[in-house]
Fold this protein.
Amino acid sequence: MTSGFISEENLTNIPGLFPGDYTVVRCIESGGSFCVISLCRKKGRLFAVKSLKEEYQNDPLYISILEKEFEIAYELDHPNIYKVIEFTDIKTLGPAIVMEYIDGMTLNLFIRKRLLTPALLLKVANELCSAMAYFHKKQIIHRDIKPENIIITNNGSNAKLIDFGFSDTDSFEFLKSPAGTSFYASPEQMRGDLLDQRSDIYSFGVMISNITKNGAYPKVFDKIVKKCVSPDKEKRFENASLIIDLLKENNTTVKQRLSIKSILVQTFIFAAIVFASLFFIKQSGNDENPQKSAFSYFSDSIIENKTTLIPQVIKRPIETSQKGAHTANKHSTEVELTNVYYSCYNKIEKYLERVSSLLRMKYTVSLEKKIPSLTVDSLNASNELRSIVDNEYMHLADSRGEQSIAMKSNSNEWAHSSLSKVLERFRSEYITTLKSVISDSFKNSPNKSGFSGPEEWYKSEFPGTAHSNLLKTGEI
């Protein structure tokens, strides 16, 4: 190597320097889901790797979920979306998605460290909307827009949208079940309806509302939030590009206001000079020669005509400020209503988790017991859910407004729809467990000879409950 330089080809031949496979450096994240994010190195370069937890590595369903995320994200090439490199099998990690390593922190952490200035929020919002507009045009719905899925880079504070694990697109016919984070999910997403780009726009609005509710951020976000989080998706922004247009419009308005302020400052400085000059001239006029100088005539002409030169420049910012105050008051109700809406969702979700746990404790599977009808449980839970919604909305100052009524109605609808799903899920799990118990009991029974199968044995051994239960399980 007479040139003094070492090629990458030569470097890779040095044993142990740049191993050909990915080497795990450390675990970045291992939350409550089925995935693990690891920091890996290959040939001197760092990568983020998303793989399955050990207990899921051989499960075809979870491998399919990981493959689906890769196939959707691999087609994306946008400066504000993380770059997916390959899908491979890595020693110690199993099937994995290899992604670019982004040096930064989540938007959630960025906010907690109080680094998100108003100007930076405008930049981040614009970049996220640009990313959404890009993948929405490809018929992709992210379904999990939230601060935890956004990285702010250490170099340049650029936004990078990550984690397409819950994303969906028309080209996939499987893994279509409802997914996402309930706090940010749209009403139609919570109901399990067919989604379009307006569901992501709703989630974006919830995120912005949560960021701006306790800070002095540009008022344009009030307008954005109001339109994004409408329970009626037809009233939301049709696409993310419209939000970008609104942000650009705001930037233009801000520049105009700054220009007006600059004019005012210059006018004030000029007026101060003029008055100081007049004061000097007046003092000079007390001497023996009171004749005016050429400068004094010029100064007087300016003062005499000042009302025709600058009145509109002075008045306009005052009017704008008053209008801004009125808008802030108007939108404060919107923000309050939105907060109640989210709070209601959270309380409903917690209550339904409690219902699910109580049902499992109350109804243990037994061959001697009939499958519970859940009618009384359903009625009691429905009444309690209605009380939760009523209590949340009763504190609103304008609780009889049309938007408030619509949101309350939507909360009730979602609550009872979700309750039905909880009850149906419990019923399904109960029946599945009962079938398993019948089968296992038949296998272990000393009296199983002479019966064609578990169902016949069950009807013979437990005649009081078997017929009714087997009817409900669909076995007879």
Summary: The chain has a mean pLDDT of 78. The chain has three domains: 19-100, 104-251, 329-473. The two ends are 82 Å apart (CA to CA).
